[in-house]
Structures are given as C-alpha cells and as structure tokens.
Amino acid sequence: MEPENEVMGEMERELEEMRECYRSGRTREASWRKSQLKGLLRLLREREEEIFRALHQDLGKHPAEAYRDEIGSLIKSVNYALDCLKRWIAGNRAKLPRIALLTTAKIVPEPLGLVLVISSWNFPIGLSLEPLIGALAAGNAMVLKPSELAPECSSLLANAIPLYLDDKAVKVIQGGPGIAERLLHRKWDKIFFTGSARIGRKVIVAAAEHLTPVTLELGGKCPAVIDTLSSSFERKVAVQRVLGAKFSSSAGQACIGVDYVLVEKKFSSALVELMKVAMKKMFGENPMELRSVTRIVNKHHFLRLQSLLHDPLVKSSIVYGGLMDEENLFIEPTILMDPPLQAAIMMDEIFGPLLPIVTLNKIEDSIEFISTRPKH
Does residue 153 carry a catalytic annotation? Predict the structure, then answer.
C-alpha cells in the first residue's frame, strides 16, 4: 500500500473517532473550549524559538517579521477569543413580530461539527492556527492540512499540536496535493481554504458533493491608488504604507499585498524617488546580505517571478531593484514604471516582491482602470 493510502486509511478511522468525540458533546462545553484556547496560547509561547527556526528554514523569515505577522498576531487573536468566549457562547433573545405577542425566542449559537482547514505556505503558522482559533472557540472538532511547501512548519505543527490540544478532537495531517484532494472528498461540516483561486475552484467543486459550506481566502489583483497629496508628510506616509503592504510581509508573497500602484503621470517621478528613499530605510542598502526580506518559497515560484521580469518590455520598465539570486531564492524588492498592460505581470497575481506603477492622466481614471482589469 502506498504511504498516502496508508495515511488515508488511518485517517478514515480517526475521522470517525473525531465525529464520535463531537457527538458526545465534549467540544461544546465552555470549559473545553477555554482549555483548548489556553493550550494554543501555551504552544505559541513555549515553542516560540522553534517557530522562528521553522519559519526561517521554510521562508527565510526574520524573527521580527515572524513575530509580527504570525506569533504575535495569533497571541492577540487567542486572547481576544478568550475575552469574548462567554459572550459568543451565550444565546441572544430574538426579536419577534407583533403577531407572536406573549411569545419569546432565543438565538443559540451552535458549532458546525467536523471542520477541515487547508492552509497556505506563505504564513504557514498564522494561516494554520488563525482558523483553528475560531473553530475551537465555536466548539468544533477540526482537521488541519498544512502546506507541504513549508515542510518544517508543517512538521512542527504535526508534532506540537497533539501535546497542547485535545488529540481526540484536533488532528494534523501532512501530505501533498493527493492527500488534500482525498480529504476534500470526505464529508465535512465546514471547509476553510487559504490559497489560489485555481485551487479554490477545486475546493468549491468538491464541497458541492456534500453541500458543505466553504470559506475561501484567496488572492487576486490588489491595486493601490495614490492621489496627488497636499503635503510631503502625507506623501511619505502613503509611500510607507504601500511599501509595507507590498514588501514587508513574506516579500510580497501575500494575498493582501499591493499588486500594483496607480498614480497620476505628473506625480510618478516624485513617487519613485520617495519609494527609493523609503525602501533603503526599510530594507537597507543590501537586503540579501542583511536578510531583511523573506526569500521566495521554492525554485518553481522563483522561476515564475523571474519569467515575469524576463519579458524584454517588462525588464526595460525596471526603475529600482531587479537583483535576483536563484541559488538563495532571493529577489530584491523591485519597482517597475508602466510595464505593458498586456504583459503577464499585469494580468496575473504577482505574489512576489515586484511592484508595477501604472501612470494615468487623471486620478479619476483609476476607477475605470481597476474595474476593467482582472480581479484574480
């Protein structure tokens, strides 16, 4: 029997045990939910150094970035869930029409049951545990499938979670696309998927088989519009926010990263100069040596980004950066001015440290530009 078949055979038995655990009512208890959230908090605090190491091995993330975007934000989310848990569990009195005079009704929150979470590689700890927080607070049992493209983080989660959480109600299963596909065709009460629109379509199709409710957290073309601001302070703030949203989280390998910038032509040169100054302050003169920018996750994604820049017309539009190191999977934060709109870099989600600037005659044209361009 192939290893994946062995894993799935064992998983079938574990899924049935998890359903039995859920049906027993154990996960509905407020004390259980609270204990699981506190266990997750202990995991984050006690395994902090291991998480730092895993994120560095998988993505080259700096500890400051790893804490800000993953560990720290997760700790905030767990504490928020603990603070709100009593209110979330409590029922609310329902408003009734006058025809129901002398009648009372109550809205009672109910857990869904057995939840599947398929996580992504760009924030392999954060995007695995963030939906887990919600699932636990709501009283569900849950299976987590971490991304195989971040193997160190996936292994860490698989080994650590059973030590801190109820292993009868929370499971981690590792594996590649084959495992994910087989999991999708099982019966779930909720599926939460983070990833590309291409895979999201497959998730929806699989979920339709059992009419399973789905939450998709997908990427897409995320433009930023910079108007001609009145003061130099406002301009600097706008530039810092755009660059931070683009480059500082996983080197632009983030679904919420700014994909391209729209600006009036008369302000474009000044904008580029402001960006150059800000980027040197943010990442230093040599980001690769300073390791201030996350590396590209693997060679496949590196070559994909490299091909975007190797288009001769696109390459000629580079106004800052462009350094690439295939051996170390490093791409310098790069700014491009008016690349061809028909080029792949303007048609597909970039998902990397490349930032095109598109100039317009009037900033009012940005609305029409965005509405006629691809969304995913």
Answer: no
Please give the C-alpha separations between residue 190 and each of 118, 141, 301, in angstroms, as whole numbers. 11, 10, 30
- At 26, is the pLDDT very low, low, confident or very high (cuts 50, 70, 90)? very high
Six-digit token string for 347: 């048609």
| pLDDT, mean of residues 3-30 | 85
Q: Are 88 and 117 in contact (CB under 8 A)?
A: no
Sign for the pseudo-dihedral over CA of 354, 358, 363, 366:
negative
> 143, 154, 155, 156: which is closest to 192 by C-alpha?
143
Where do the domains of the chain lie?
3-218, 223-371
**CB burial of residue 344 (10 Å; 0-12, 13-18, 19+):** middle
Pick the closest to residue 59 from 196, 253, 319 (CA basis).
Answer: 253
pLDDT in tens, 246-260: 998 899 999 888 999
157 and 81 Cβ atoms separated by less than 8 Å? no
* Residue 376 pLDDT exceeds 70: no
Catalytic residue among 21, 65, 130, 255: 255
Evaluate if residue 1 carries a pLDDT over 50.
no
Look up residue 224 and give its two tokens: 């930023």
Phi-psi region of 175 (alpha: psi -120 to 50; beta: other; left: phi over 0): left
Average pLDDT, integer, range 186-197: 94
User: For 106-116, what is each residue's pLDDT tens digit?
Assistant: 999 999 999 99
Report the sign of the C-alpha dihedral through residues 192, 75, 71, 29, in that order. negative
**Residue 222 annotated among the catalytic residues of the structure:** no
Of 256, 280, 276, which Cα lies nearest the Cα of 268?
276
Does residue 8 carry a pLDDT above 70? no
- Host H or E run for residue 23: helix 3-23
Locate tokens 């590792």: which residue?
174
Topology, domain 3-218: Aldehyde Dehydrogenase; Chain A, domain 1 (3.40.605)
Catalytic residue among 48, 50, 181, 217: 217
Give the CATH superfamily of 223-371: Aldehyde Dehydrogenase; Chain A, domain 2 (3.40.309.10)
